[in-house]
Amino acid sequence: MDGPAAPEPSGFSFGDAAFRDNPYPSYKFLRENMPVWQTPDGRWVLSRHEDATAILRDPRFGHNNSGIISDEIANEPILRGLTRTMLLLDPPAHTRLRGLVAKAFNARRVEELRPRILQIVDQLIDAVIDRGEMDIIRDFAHKLPVTVICDMLGIPEHDRDRFLHEGQVRGRILDPVALSRAELDLANAHAIEMDAYWRSLFAYRRANPGPDLTTALLAASENDDTLSDEEIIANIGLLFGAGHETTTNLIGNGTLALARNPAEWQKLYANPNLIPGAIEELLRYDSPVQLTARTTMEDVDIAGTAIAKGAQVIALLGAANHDPAAYPGDPDALDVSRANVKPVSFGGGIHFCLGAQLARIEGEIAFTRLFERLPNLRVVAPDAVVWKPTITLRGLETLPAVF
Predict the structure, then answer these.
(1) What SS3 class is residue 132?
(2) What angle do CA 73, 302, 172 make, to 5 degrees?
(3) Which listed residue, of 51, 68, 224, 271, carries a Cα 20 to 30 Å from 337's Cα?
(4) Residue 378: enclosing H or E segment and its boundaries?
(5) What are the residues facing 306 on neighbouring strands?
(6) In terms of Cα–Cα distance, which of 345, 403, 337, 336 is closest to 369?
(7) 201 with 214: CB under 8 angstroms?
């Protein structure tokens, strides 16, 4: 199937606001007409479940960040940090870093966080319950995972306001659309500010070690693993950014999906035992992470299409989650009682999201307590929402609700 790149399909552009607001019609078009599509700038886009999931586990598809990040922006402060993260590293560097960080995310330790997560959720509801209204995103979905991650990293209480209330730096750095100079300047300024903060936290934790992930990583850096402060800064920043965005978007997107499907909302309210399975369906229906990229480490063939070594390949996770080949019937419908839901929203293979189980537990407790304590919760305008200006990380700016 070698040949000229297909023209960009009508109505589909990564940089288009209409695609950002609702990418699913474009995903369907691509799956049915161009499942292995080459963009005008030479990247390959996979939209079928079989193809998208295959490359996540195939060692011939690596990150090799030099193939993803252009030379023009490789030396920007925000990029210098990003290239030291597990997100853009291949083995053995990836294996070394992930092995150190993964200890904080094993199943037992994450399960032990349930009482603390429940406490945080109740505190957030307590703070708004007398008002009769809240912004689901700013008052609840954002603050929950940020507080949990602050706990895990050992960030002192007096420093937490900067994370709870600061304006969020956009996740545009991960989008397959070039950043403007203004966006880069904003991201760089935030990276420089956070670099200074993490170094101050390291000094504090070296003098005041605790049972937290930051202390553990600093201890590792002083032993045989020899992690540099720059590597620790990059990966703590990754955990903080990715960790709170996935949970925030799971709760926000999930609440909106239920508001737009009131019969499913009522089904969950009447049958709270469905909530753990419903979390999987909400992850599938409107994934917090919509795509991920890999670089071909050798010449490969995907569904009969020859792709050369060094090419960037984008797996559309949101499209894979709506593929009827994986979800027979109507995959574009929300069904909180759907069986055998295994979304690829957290990626797969060696780069499977470390915080996936934590995000699931946070979502499960959040929805359970919202149903229990705010049974009359109602999203104010579910058909008039504003999405964040990112496509890789899909989430809402705000979501006003009353109760």
Answers:
(1) coil
(2) 25
(3) 51
(4) strand 378-379
(5) 301
(6) 403
(7) yes
Long-range CB contacts (within 8 A, 24+) of 378-381 = 378/259, 378/402, 378/403, 379/136, 379/255, 379/256, 379/259
353-391 burial code (b ≥16 CB/10 A, e <16): bbbbbbbbbbbbbbbbbbbeebeebebeebeebebbebb
Cα–Cα distances (Å) from 99 to 86, 103, 179, 220, 224, in that order, read 10, 7, 32, 11, 13
**Whole-angstrom distance, CA of residue 195 vs CA of residue 215:** 17
Cα–Cα distance for residue pair 180/162, rounded to 1 Å: 25
CB 250 within 8 A of CB 140: no
Is residue 229 within 8 Å of 220, Cβ to Cβ?
Answer: no
For 366-397, what is each residue's pLDDT tens digit? 999 999 999 999 999 999 999 998 889 999 99
The b/e string for 82-113 (b: 16+ C-beta within 10 A; e otherwise) is bbbbbbbbbeeebebbbebbeebbeeeebeeb
Q: Is the peptide bond before 35 cis (omega within 30 degrees of 0)?
A: no
What tens digit of pLDDT does each residue of 109-160 get? 889 999 999 999 999 999 999 999 999 999 999 999 999 999 999 999 999 9
pTM for the full model? Answer: 0.89
- Would you tell me the crossing angle of helices 114-128 and 143-153 to the nearest 10 degrees? 140
